[in-house]
Amino acid sequence: MVNEIRNICYDTDLNIEAYQFLGIMQKFPNHFHDYYVLGFIESGKRYLTCNNQDYILNAGNITIFNPHDTHACEQVDGKALDYRCINIEPNIMRRTAAEITGNDSLPHFKQTVLYHNELAASLRELNLMIFEEENDFIKEELFLFLIEQLIEEYSDTIPKSFSQEPTTEIKTACAYLESNYAQPITLDKLSELTELSKYHLLRSFTRQKGISPYSYLITIRINNAKKLLEQGMSPLDVAFQTGFSDQSHFSNFFKKLIGLTPKQYLKIFQNNPKPLLSMGEEI
């Protein structure tokens, strides 16, 4: 017998729900929701009917249900379903879409299924961040960029263009990140400082700097972390000195950017204060 797991988590930062279904064999009859559902298939195969159209769903597919889209689904070939989704109330979608498009209207998504779409990775990451109770603004940044791409590519809403890049405002944001990297930083604070909407700030910052605000912040934190490790400070102390919520969070980002764990990096400087490393040298 298949063990079913059904988890739900409400994110108070984004005001959206996240669902995780594992090993689901249940058949869902024709129904609808009064909110948006952005889901993706992790594993399994399903037959879906939505608005009188038939689909076969496989791992890697994204499903998009507008409010009141009628849909039903059931398993295919006896395979259980592993599925994650986020549910967005219309008032939250309206507010988010207004930031992105400049239009005070609800988007209507034209495609129910996106096959093997690259956005599945972003949707999965956002779902995981909600369940892991991520409190850095990377979660909000990811949410806004995800909704932006879905609206631009798959809805009937046309975003308004922003003609001028606010260079002064982006310099202000950079200066704040550089001076306050060790403290908790929110997208709300950056938006307040620059007097830009959060979406416009994210888009303008990324266009000008070639990197998102959160990635910029992490780079600053890691660069300062390197200096502290070079001075012999323990990875645990470095993590908290540079603004990371815990050592695991710090270690993951450090290895992603530097290619070594903090302990490996520290060991280099403990063994040799002025190491000379070649690209091919093994650690």
TrEMBL record:
The HTH araC/xylS-type domain, residue ranges: 171-268
SMART domains reported for this sequence: HTH_ARAC
Domain of life: Bacteria
GO MF terms held by the record: DNA-binding transcription factor activity; sequence-specific DNA binding
This protein's UniProt keywords: DNA-binding, Transcription, Transcription regulation
SUPFAM superfamilies: Homeodomain-like, Regulatory protein AraC
Gene3D superfamilies: Homeodomain-like, Jelly Rolls
PANTHER family attached to this UniProt entry: HTH-TYPE TRANSCRIPTIONAL ACTIVATOR RHAS-RELATED, TRANSCRIPTIONAL REGULATORY PROTEIN
Protein name stated in the entry: HTH-type transcriptional activator RhaS
Organism: Desulfosporosinus acididurans
